[in-house]
Specification:
The protein is elongated and about 40 Å long. The chain contains seven helices and no strands. Helix 4 packs antiparallel against helix 5, helix 5 packs antiparallel against helix 6 and helix 6 packs antiparallel against helix 7. The chain is an all-alpha fold. It has a single domain, classed as Four Helix Bundle (Hemerythrin (Met), subunit A), CATH 1.20.120.
Amino acid sequence: MNIEILKENGIDYDEGLRRFSGYTEIYEKYLRRLADLDIYKELEEKYTQKDVKGAFEASHKLKAFIGNLSIPVLFDEISKMTEILRLGTMGGTEESMAFITEGISKLATVMQREIEKET
């Protein structure tokens, strides 16, 4: 993986690697999961269905995943949205959801390109 490309796209690679105790293979394995968007799909589904509780649970999982990978810009926005959903409302989350959707999509594209380079 090209670490500089990852850094240019908002991933704090050094901090993420630290969170994974320096195990590059394991950290990069989890980064590759960004390529398939599965971690995001549950949030999208629950949010679209206006299922506040389900969206909260999905956003909380995504927040943990993104936090462990050390993607600060997305983490901050997901944290903000998670706290609003925790209050039992979706009001005021539209901009956050749009930001998260765009950010996850961009990272999925970046990771897919990195995976293709490896094969």
